[in-house]
Design a protein that fits this description.
single chain; 152 residues; alpha+beta; 7-stranded antiparallel β-sheet; 4 helices
Amino acid sequence: MTNSPAAPLDGAIRDGRHYMRIRVYYEDTDFTGLVYHANYLRFMERGRSNYLRLLGADQRALFDEAESEAPGFAFVVRSMQIEFLKPAHMDEVLDIVTRPLEVRGASITLHQEVRRGDTLLLDAKVKVAFVSGGQARPIPKALRVAMKADQV
């Protein structure tokens, strides 16, 4: 775990994976008391965003280098493959696990899981495109290094 004040909210990166905990609230559920399927997308987005935030905190110089190479860069979701395996319920604590799988030019594929303890609830592959100035661009070397993407 990182010792920064943001670590409890943003999760932590360990062994190339980002781990983030969330609690399921009433607003996350449908009339049956189960997490509404679209809310898993929000949970996963938070996992991806916090993964990048922690990379930036740990590798600020590398992110600054990427910003100089591709001003105003962002990652945008291009595709998702999701398997909903088991439901989550109100008040449960879930783990969102994110790790890089593959880097190709202007995109990176991430593997994401939603877990309740040892139980896998959702398994997903998410492809995100790297864009700058409204155009797809090759992922700068600085970001590849920060994500350890060249080792994937």
